[in-house]
Amino acid sequence: MKNRIAVPSWAGLAALLMLSGAAAAAPVTVTAPAGAVTGTTSDGMRVFKGIPYARPPVGALRWRAPQPMPAWQGARAATQFGPACIQPVAVTPNIYSGAPLPMSEDCLTLNIWSPEGARGAAVLVWIHGGSLWTGSGREALYDGTHLARRGLIVVTINYRLGALGYLAHPELSAESAQGISGNYGLLDQIEALKWVKRNIGAFGGDAANVTVAGESAGGLSVLYLMISPPAQGLFAKAIAESSYMISMPTLREPHFGLPSAEDSGRALATGLHAANIAELRAMDAQKLNNGAAALGFGPWGTVDGHILKEQMVSAFDQGHQAQVPVLAGFNSGEARSLRVLVPPIPATPAQYEQAIRERYADLAPQFLRLYPSAAMEESALATTRDALYGWTAERIVTKQTAAKVPAYLYLFDHGYPAMDQAKLHAFHASELPYVFGNFDSVGALWPKIPSDLSERAFSDAMIDYWSSFARDGRPRAAQAPAWAAFGSQGAYMHLARVPVLEHHLMPGMYELDEAVVCRRMAAGDQPWNWNAGLAAPKLPARSAGCN
After folding, report:
1. Which of 128, 414, 428, 494 is labelled catalytic?
2. Which of 180, 290, 462, 546 has the most Cβ atoms closer than 10 angstroms to its Cβ?
3. What average pLDDT does the segment 312-337 reach?
4. Per CATH, is 10-535 categorized as 3.40.50.1380?
5. Is 334 a catalytic residue?
6. What 3-state class would DSSP assign to 443?
7. Residue 392 has pLDDT above 90, yes or no
8. Contact predicate 155/200, CB 8 Å
9. Known catalytic residue: 320?
10. Which DSSP string do the residues of 416-437 spell out, in sequence order?
11. CA 511 to CA 390: how far, in whole Å?
């Protein structure tokens, strides 16, 4: 409100503030099985921040499975976000950089947006991205207000990151009753879902109608949850945005060109000059994670025989994944903001073609049709995009469809002037402001999103699609086309200037990457991730069952 506007009375001021959406928040208390929490309510929305779902994983609890939070007495304040989990601080700002977040090992908290009067509402649990290194459920981009106004309960969570979340080590395995280690960040996510199952009814949610959703490493986490036995029964639907079905290390044996997870843990301890786990536990958490990042530690899910029993590819092939409706997709410009994943471009088209023939052998003609030398940079960007994100999205919906479960595919291909002028059309994560409706909650280097009617209408359609899918497993939008399941016709929603239903996304892309992964799995000595195209090792020869 401008200062020059005269307000005749306090009643008039209150009315103006209410009309502007700036009404003062009032306290609201909910009593859940975990204990009573006092949040705030304003303009029909109740918000509860920083609710602990597990005990702080500090001291002797560092690198242990999360321990349930004991019920507390009295009403606990839930008006401030909890700190983010410990993560390296970016030295060089990038497009994803935002204001520094307060950090702590005492970070296992969640946040809830609930419409006033909600009863038996669908629940969406959001898992943030950040390469399993960074991020937090408290980021302003993930404010759940707009989704919750569609009748959902929105929950955002924190989980342990980096070496604090994914370190495996023989000593840690020896401490475990199951003889395993690693996957602590994933176990945090599972514990958060258990908390939701026990408590969300008190906030107006339906514990039997929970959708897990995430983008990038959050989407990867959704896939981990889909194949993790302890997570089964904790969610009814899944949304995987820009997820990646990469190869995973095994706890004790090297596989697919990767060292065992325990060997990686040993190497990290050596690099940090720690003789044992006791010395690692005594290290400052920030210095530990900073050092792990500098040493190139990879925080990945580990195949341990219990929490993750097999490779994601194998689990989906065998139908061992959660048989739940899925909405999955990727962005047309994924790699434009992830240039570090794109290999150097050769000087000439002839060199490009020679490099591809050396790497792809009998599949080289198929590769060059999809990613021609006439546009080497665009081909290199598309190769990385497809090997990581495009193939994964189509694989998810293909396998769910084969299991007779509804599955919906999208391609986010939306641009606007500032984005396209920066040559970042539909870059990685650029769908998030539209999914959450939060245009002004991005970092300073994010291309500014115009807040005009057409952009808002596009965002409204995406919010409609996502929220209706969370409600009943069918994405629908009031002012946009009907979204058909992937099915036998290969339907997908092309989210370009406006949503358009199309069929048969990027013919040949899925088949090529499927053949490459099949051969690598059969050979057993190559990973599959961003080592595609010009960065690919020599492709193994064709084997039984692989093209």
Report:
1. 428
2. 462
3. 98
4. no
5. yes
6. coil
7. yes
8. yes
9. no
10. -HHHHHTT-TTBTTTTHHHHHT
11. 11
DSSP classification of residue 255: B
**Side-chain half-sphere exposure of 59, counting CA atoms within 13 A:** 3
pTM over 0.85: yes
The per-type count for the chain, helices as H runs and strands as E runs, is 18, 15
Contact 126, 214 (CB under 8 A): yes
Predicted pLDDT of residue 508:
98
pLDDT at position 437 is 97
Please give the Cα distance from 54 to 69 (Å, whole number). Answer: 4
How large is the average pLDDT for residues 333-360? 97
Among the listed residues 114, 173, 216, 260, the single catalytic one is 216
What token pair was written down for 423?
A: 């040559």
Unique residue bearing structure tokens 């984005």: 419
What pLDDT does residue 86 have? 98
Q: Phi-psi region for residue 26, left (φ > 0), alpha (ψ -120 to 50) or beta?
A: beta
User: Rounded to a whole number, what is the distance in angstroms from the first to the last CA of the chain?
Assistant: 65
Does residue 10 surpass a pLDDT of 50?
no
Q: Which of 191, 262, 334, 431 is catalytic?
A: 334
DSSP class per residue in 44-102: TEEEEEEEE-B----GGGTTSPPPBPPPPSSEEE-SSPPPEEP-PPPSS--TT--SPPP
Sign of CA dihedral 428, 430, 436, 438: positive
Dist CA 288 CA 160 (whole Å):
13
Specify whether 216 is catalytic: yes
E-strand spans in 220-357? 237-241, 326-331
